[in-house]
Amino acid sequence: MLVKTILNRCERFKCFVYGQVRFVTQAGRDSLDVEVKPRKGSAALCSCCHQAAPCYDHASEPRRFEFVPLWGYAVFLVYVMRRVDCPRCGVKVEEVPWADGKHQLTKTYMQFLASWARSLSWTEVSRRFQTSWEKVFHAVEYIVEWGLQHRNLDGITAIGVDEIQWKKNHKYLTLVYQINGGVVRLLWISKDRTVESFSAFFDMLGEKRSAFIEHVCSDMWKPYLQVIAQRVSQAVHILDRFHIVARINKALDEVRASEHRRMQAAGREPLLTKTRWLLLKRPENLTEKQEPRLRELVQYNLQSVRAYLLKEEFQLLWTYISPAWAGKFIDRWTTRVMRSRIEPLKREALTIRRHKPLILNWFKAKGAFSSGVVEGLNNKVKLTMRKSYGFRHYKTIEIALYHSMGALPEPDVTHRFC
Ligand SMILES: [Zn+2]
Fold first, then answer.
1. How many CA atoms lie within 13 A of 286 on its CB side?
2. What counts of helices (H) and strands (E) characterise the chain?
């Protein structure tokens, strides 16, 4: 069987045919060079208006477009590009179906690499296919850009907004997700966590679609609250459980760390050594070893223990069904915290009081979304960022996150290469 026959099966072009296949060794790398020629009687297309146009001239050298490798050999489509004399656009380079103007890789090969980049790191993909990290990046970028242009943004009724730290010196990203009706996907990424970065999402979505949004989940970050009030005032705004619990945990951790330091300085028994996760975990998630240690620790009259018990008690909030009773619980709990003289927790109690109506919206919307949805997404973002060293540039992280979490459509293929 000829390579040509295989190619005609998996990648056939209407206006072009395959010619000779040669084995070429270039710079120590073996490859199959497949000649591509225009099909007899088919006209060239203008790359500007996509219409047929008379041929103007040929390039002096053929171009090599990298295709999906075969049995460890690189494969190139070799073609002498034409220019057309388009009556609408003037003299333009022709359009070819296997590549776009910018890339040396064929579209099919880019889709192939991008699909591997879903399961392997970009570095690993470049190693496996003897290509460069940059080429893998461009492949993913191409697929993501195609997906963003072709995605359907109708039917969004619930969104969640989240901020994530991506650089040490307090650099944040704003992420917006769709979370309704079984569709969970990343809709938007922008730099910073300002009013502008979140507003830009609604500019992209447009007023018409924004009007269909019924629920918005967020944390208590002020610029977000402001944008939600302005741009989707019709929606029920929910402060989600994950972010509230995360704040209380952070306060508890502050209490523990400073008490630990005070005890060390006073030369007391180091009771709080390695208790961080003991206190932060939910009791049901403790390991067999941790359980007895926690039981012992709570016997001591420590500020950290009192803070721990208050944190655990707060979890009861989520068992309420009626917003009214949940509200009463919040009043009782915050009063107790305010009397506790534990400053970091008092700070959070005040915040919770201030945002009580929005927190109670969580109970009003109950059943609309699972409470773990925002938390799950947040974890997935962190995982993508961890997996990928070399994501120091914003553009790279943007492309990587859209690729892994955007649920973007991809160009139709006649043959699956992997
Ligand atoms: Zn044209």
1. 17
2. 16, 14
Q: How far is the CA of 14 from the centre of ligand 1 (A)?
A: 19
Distance CA 56, CA 70 (A): 35
Asked whether the predicted pLDDT for residue 256 surpasses 70, the reply is: yes
Q: Could you tell me what percent of the chain has a pLDDT over 90? A: 62
Among 74-83, 217-226, 232-241, the range of highest mean pLDDT: 74-83
Ligand 1 mean position, distance from CA 11 (Å):
26
- Contact present, 198 and 175 (Cβ < 8 Å): no
Its pTM stands at: 0.82
pLDDT at 202 over 60: yes
Q: How many whole angstroms from 94 Cα to the centroid of ligand 1?
A: 9
Cα of 72 from ligand 1 centre, angstroms = 39
Cα separation, 221 vs 202, whole angstroms = 17
Residue 199 main-chain phi, psi, to 5 deg:
-60, -35
Between the CA of 85 and the centroid of ligand 1 the distance, in Å, is 8
Provide the domain count of the chain.
3
Ligand 1 center–CA 80 separation, angstroms: 19
Kindly state the average pLDDT of the residues 232-246: 88
Residue 205 identity (one-letter amino acid): L
Give the Å distance between the CA of 46 and the centre of ligand 1. Answer: 5
Range of the domain at 290: 241-364
Same domain? 359 vs 386? no
Q: How confident is the model at residue 390 (pLDDT cuts 50, 70, 90)?
A: low
- Taking Cα atoms as reference points, which of 341, 282, 347, 350 lies closest to residue 312? 282
Residues 166 and 205 in one domain: yes
Residues 308 and 254 in one domain: yes
How many whole angstroms from 152 Cα to the centroid of ligand 1? 29
State in Å: Cα 43 to ligand 1 middle.
Answer: 13
